[in-house]
Amino acid sequence: MTGGPVIGDGMPLQTTLIFTLPRSERNRSVETVTRPWAPGSDAAPIDRIPVELLSIIMILAVPQFDFASPDWDFLPKLERSMSDILDLTAVSRRWRQVAENTPQLWSCLHVRAHESKIEEYFMKTWMSRSRAVPLSVSFDGDTEEPDSECFNLLRGNLHRCKHLQLDAPAHMISSLMSGSFPHLETVRLLNRYKEQTLALKDLSLSSAAPGIRLVYLQGISSDFNTKSFNWWCVTELILEATGLALMPSMTVIAECTNLHILRLTFNKLTEEDAKPYFDDNDGPRPRCEKLHTLEVKAPDSYLDFSVFIWWLFLPALRRLKLYGCFVLYPCLLEMIPRDGCLLEELVIDHDAPDPFTTEEEHLLTFFKSLPDLRTLEIIGGIPDAFRTDIAKRLTFKPGRPRNDYLLPKVESMKIWGLGGWASYWDIQKMLESRSKIGAEAPATRLKCATITSRGYSQKHRWDLKADGHIIHDGWHIQYGFLPFVPTCEPRSPGDEDEVVHSTLAVTPSPPPEIDADLLD
């Protein structure tokens, strides 16, 4: 076995970490670490690579991670890459020397702080070998004791952090966030326990972290210190809180005058929580003139959360995602033309007893205000509003002018929960025509789509695949133990037909009026 770092009982660090890996990875790593070294033998070709080139190869061989992504869901991969770095040090003595003298390899680490000598040595090794390179650290503080060796190691190296995630109890986070952070660009403070809240009372990083760009706060309190960060530097803000923290959250948003991305989650917002905000006529009203992405989640909220969207000034908005309890139509319809925002992506996940809108005229007007939209998702909320006229305006017809189409640039569409007012053939013809459009056509080709519909007698689901293939599934709705049997054969609706509930067969035959070219 090659030489390398050891821990208390003389066991090499590489071998110790191997036993935490899956069996397949463990076998591979054991073979690597235990490969014999033959002193005095001629250098293998792999050991003749110039030092500078070998160092670059090692850096490129380790996966790179986007630490500015909204979710650090790559943490397991980060742990795997850390084990891969140890494998590089076990190839040969020369490789170990090159790896240990390449500080960029050791600048990213994920630590689970608990009473473990292995974890402490592991953290010390990474910290020392990274030298003066700025650190990217994810720290899980699963202990109530703030004086552990891992905790103290992190505290002593916070000034080196470029990206920092603290997933720990609120009191531990508060005790860590002090001092100077000259390299800090990304900070995630995730309050681990719901029964605690994050106030950051004594924190003031206005001058201590001049380069901060992304702030993610989870579980903040109603008395949260709104002066804790230099908010005008922040370009991406992620807030997750209960309704009790509505007021400080809105104050923080108003201070973030250079926001590009805003993601909000408010759980169980009550009328009592919102009343102080609506009663405060002199309170902050944000003007997010650079904001291009807005996501709002408001599960189990008492009111239409779109009232918070409506008064934001969002002229640069391109992506809007709304999840939760919404009655959105009037506020959104006023906001879009008022601000002149050219939405390219719209997601509405509607979960409320009242619909998004019930009138086809309203939905038609809403779609007309979205000429640049490329991605549309509406999950519920429009069962009675999506009717024949809208389906026809979405259908491609040669010779039709561009301004006569709804959503002429849409490439991806997901609409769930239609009520059957648009018939089987309305939707089928729309998907077939929009999936076969050429590059010179006035409308854009639809690349993928999922649509579900439920009428009085049947349920339908269409899936348009990337290759243009349409998969349709249909079911009769059963009453008691017998399926409902339609009384008429399906036919293609004419342009002058009145809108009626669809009574089509589950697997309809194409009517003679359908253009044969559309069915090839």
TrEMBL record:
Q: Do you know which InterPro entries this protein is assigned to?
A: LRR_dom_sf
What's the superkingdom here? Eukaryota
What is the recorded name of this protein? Uncharacterized protein
Q: Which organism is it from?
A: Gloeophyllum trabeum (strain ATCC 11539 / FP-39264 / Madison 617)
